[in-house]
């Protein structure tokens, strides 16, 4: 029973992190119609920014700086690398994104070396909860993700800017005819995605207190998987896919017989879902425009 | 001086020339229509004028301002917008939210409330369905929504691309009546239509397009009685 409870909480909290990252993939895909494979590496940059500013021993300042720097970085990457390719073939954009990903990783290695850096942001400790020992950081992660997701959902549904994002994702030319500045909306999307990635970076450091240049690689791919499972382009889909993948991962780790195959199991789920339901759980079939 | 002046407009899709140097003008208060067969380049022309597709050569002047290189959202703010072909309403948003998007460039809340009441008064159907997701509307209702949405930004020049497409004959008549109405309220109209007979009947002037060029021009009545137009577009 205790085991089930702690697995549940860990799974939800890991799922929350995946969902947070997946939101960045899915929103950028929905609005800019591109896969930003450098998104995972923003997490890693966030981790390093926290590492640098933890020299001040002020966790809040470090996290705030990570968010600010990641937002700036995300927006600059979009302007410099992706915007000139607006209207280019999707393959060109995809390859550029992979290039940006390697660029960020190599840059981090040059600046910080290849050995991981230890960062203890804050030690929340553990609590006993219904007999189970639970990491408080997992509860904090879970709490923050829930708040962020609710806020994001409300933002998209009830603000002028949020509705404009839906309009752009549904029909870019029609949105322009409403007087919506599509480039501006894309910039906002990258900013939001990067801020969420910075938070994800923080949560990773709370789980395991070390940052290296490849910190974002695997979470990036996992979250991308989550976004596709949930239906890429769909915000609730990214949340659902993230939570699902996080739960599967934690449950699978519980059983020693299948634990080594955890990654394989997760990616198999992706393949299975793509076979049965190519649009993912909540994805919509898009009208092909002629 | 003309309100909209298009001069030697050329548009290419890759190496294919879609518009081969088109020139025409629209004066304040007019209804001007462009008729022509499928593939003549009408939609391409409409989209390139508002900056949705890039121009290779030529100039577009609106109200004395050269807007050849102006991005679409800024052109809309200057007072020109378009009801695109196929209506292109936002299916996932409600009727009300669609109208809200139409008023995106206008942040005046008072004005917005008055405009939305005006839209509901013009189309009571939209008022009944204000909270319904727009994708569930019928074709005719979607066309009404698309027109109301475009009017929300108070365009001085409204372009309509095939507004009668896919509608029943009764609704087609209604759409042309509405266009006349909008024009009477002071909005200049540029209309692209395959329904040549009906659009010539309401037009002050018209142009005929063929293969990316304008081949004929005149008043609506002149073209409607021209042998060439009759043969090619009016089924007689």
Question: What key phrases describe this protein's structure?
Answer:
heterodimer; A: 290 residues; mainly alpha; two-stranded antiparallel ribbon; 11 helices; B: 236 residues; alpha/beta; Rossmann fold; 4-stranded antiparallel beta sheet; 10 helices; 39% helix; globular
Instruction: Measure the end-to-end span of chain B.
Output: 36 Å
Binned strand content of chain A: under 5%
The 3D shape of chain B can be described as: globular
Per DSSP, what share of the residues of chain B sits in E-state strands of 2 or more residues?
25-35%
Shape estimate of chain A? globular
* Count of beta strands of chain A: 4
Sequence of strands across the biggest β-sheet of chain A: 1-4
As a percent range, the share of helical residues of chain A equals over 70%
Radius of gyration of chain A: 19 Å
Percent helix range of chain B: 25-40%
β-strand number of chain B: 10
Number of contiguous helices of chain B: 10
Topology at a glance:
The complex is a heterodimer of chains A (290) and B (236).
Chain A: H1 2-32, H2 39-53, H3 59-82, H4 90-112, E1 117-118, E2 126-129, E3 132-135, H5 136-158, H6 160-170, H7 172-177, H8 182-207, E4 210-211, H9 217-230, H10 235-254, H11 262-276
Antiparallel strand pairs in A: 1-4, 2-3
Helix pairs in contact in A: 1-5, 1-8, 1-9, 1-10, 2-3, 2-4, 2-8, 2-9, 3-8, 5-6, 6-8, 9-10, 9-11, 10-11
Chain B: E1 4-13, E2 16-26, E3 31-36, H1 42-49, E4 57-62, E5 65-66, H2 72-78, E6 80-83, H3 95-102, H4 109-122, H5 124-128, H6 139-151, E7 157-161, H7 169-184, E8 188-193, H8 196-202, E9 205-210, E10 213-219, H9 220-225, H10 227-233
Parallel strand pairs in B: 3-8, 3-9, 6-7, 7-8
Antiparallel strand pairs in B: 1-2, 1-4, 4-5, 9-10
Helix pairs in contact in B: 3-6
Task: Explain the overall architecture.
The complex is a heterodimer of chains A (290) and B (236). In chain A, helix 2 packs across helix 8. Chain A has eleven helices and four strands; from the N terminus they run ααααβββααααβααα. Chain A has a domain of 200 residues. The model of chain A has no long low-confidence stretch (mean pLDDT 94). In chain A, the strands form two sheets. A two-stranded antiparallel sheet of chain A has the order 1-4. Chain A is mainly alpha-helical and 290 residues long. The longest helix of chain A has 31 residues. In chain A, a hairpin with a 2-residue loop joins strand 2 and strand 3. Chain B is an alpha/beta fold and 236 residues long. A six-stranded mixed β-sheet of chain B has the order 6-7-8-3-9-10, sandwiched between helices. Chain B has a four-stranded antiparallel β-sheet with strand order 2-1-4-5, with helices on one face. Chain B starts with a strand and ends with a helix. The model of chain B has no long low-confidence stretch (mean pLDDT 94). Chains A and B meet through helix 6 and helix 7 of A and helix 2 and helix 3 of B.
